[in-house]
Amino acid sequence: MQSCESSGDSADDPLSRGLRRRGQPRVVVIGAGLAGLAAAKALLEQGFTDVTVLEASSHIGGRVQSVKLGHATFELGATWIHGSHGNPIYHLAEASGLLEETTDGERSVGRISLYSKNGVACYLTNHGRRIPKDVVEEFSDLYNEVYNLTQEFFRHDKPVNAESQNSVGVFTREEVRNRIRNDPDDPEATKRLKLAMIQQYLKVESCESSSHSMDEVSLSAFGEWTEIPGAHHIIPSGFMRVVELLAEGIPAHVIQLGKPVRCIHWDQASARPRGPEIEPRGEGDHNHDTGEGSQGGEEPRGGRWDEDEQWPVVVECEDCELIPADHVIVTVSLGVLKRQYTSFFRPGLPTEKVAAIHRLGIGTTDKIFLEFEEPFWGPECNSLQFVWEDEAESRTLTYPPELWYRKICGFDVLYPPERYGHVLSGWICGEEALVMEKCDDEAVAEICTEMLRQFTGNPNIPKPRRILRSAWGSNPFFRGSYSYTQVGSSGADVEKLAKPLPYTESSKTAHGSSTKQQPGHLFSSKCPEQPLDANRGAVKPMQVLFSGEATHRKYYSTTHGALLSGQREAARLIEMYRDLFQQGT
Hints:
InterPro entries: Amino_oxidase, FAD/NAD-bd_sf, Flavin_monoamine_oxidase. The protein is of the alpha/beta class. It has a domain at 66-241 and 365-471: Polyamine Oxidase, Chain A, domain 2 (Alpha-Beta Complex). It has helices at 19-22, 34-45, 88-95, 133-155, 168-181, 188-209, 240-248, 334-344, 351-359, 417-420, 431-438, 441-456, 491-498, 559-576, 578-582; strands at residues 27-30, 51-54, 66-69, 72-75, 80-81, 107-108, 120-125, 232-234, 255-256, 261-265, 272-273, 313-317, 322-325, 327-330, 345-346, 361-363, 365-372, 381-387, 410-413, 422-429, 466-469, 482-484, 532-533, 544-546.
């Protein structure tokens, strides 16, 4: 982390040059999810006044999406607060009374979280038979023993043998399979059931990791993800309440909704406009003069800037508006970075950051909520888990598109029924989730009903009266649910993804070759020309910062990881400007 040791007396100091005129650094945050809101809130609380949050969608929250139907709130995105001891999400929710109605059954300490720890999971086969409870318990104990082994490769720096292909899925499948086959006490029929259960457990694990298959998750890096101690909690009023609490301290004019970004032009040094005037923002803009906190006659922020001012970064929006800034905090998902990094940054990203984006993984985990008039499951049942007996010898979790439904690992029972009604929550991940997203509600409801009839052996199960489902993979603002360490990647790639630009070692050699910028120009071919001079001056540090769950080395894939990453990037800037703020500049 860099700090500003200069007081601004030197005209060559890129940090303070221009701040003597404006008094405040301008920070643009891209994305109003937990990371973006946490960053903006931290900056505002520390005295930064020129902060703008650009959100592409029509609402804040990012991958938190609580949908209210009737009296119940359903989570299409983040559902659980994972761990309580030191978890900032938990402490925020607890201090605000959001957990007062959380039942004991919704405080799960299990590794694989259900909606209730009460009751038992019903493991059903595609032949309509329930697997005996003792068989399920024996298999679960065996699987968890092997799961614990997968953690040791990173934590104890154990070498990974070639047979495992450095894959959690390959290692787990073969280790569990060998132990089952070598058990002298089990009859062959029981062994076949347990072998089939391997695939079901790996489907659940894949949904938890948001990978297409656990075969794609790195064995050597798997143990670096850190679980916060304490129970997992559900927020009855909706996870969106946490988002709203974060946003409460942020003035309304700071957040602009429906404002997608096309490109971040960084390392501009002394770039300034010399062409056509940039149009001011329209009346519908959140930053347009509303009479609150605005100076009379003040230009809309980002609409125009003084010809003598120098800005190292300019954010080009899809509506062709150019917003100059000292710093930009990028919180977009890894899925968006994978899809758009070549066009999203000019100059192109450093080679090692591009490589990290490629190596790290992000997949899709979707939920399918089915609401029924009456429950067809028993009161002791907290989930229906689907075991395909013909998958006992299978070594893959990939299915042809027409068999996408075989990737559904099962349905959890939402608890308590007094709050939710009679609702099941199905889980599906990977490429099969993307196929599901393309189907209409009627088709998905029909297929799920047929599966429930088949696995329960009850042909009279009615179709659900309502269906609600997520579609994170096809959402252009996310392109996936959350990240994981893919085979070939490690925590070092997470660090590289999080590293601010320009690199301090050598800003001139930091640029990748994926996107070449024409000298002296800053515009997209889709927008009217607004050429800028690009006279280079001293390089300003931390022009582009990166946050979001995928940038947290220990807590990737979690809401607390996202929040902490936003606070981390804000802290970099707070530290950088501490001396200047203390001097009252």
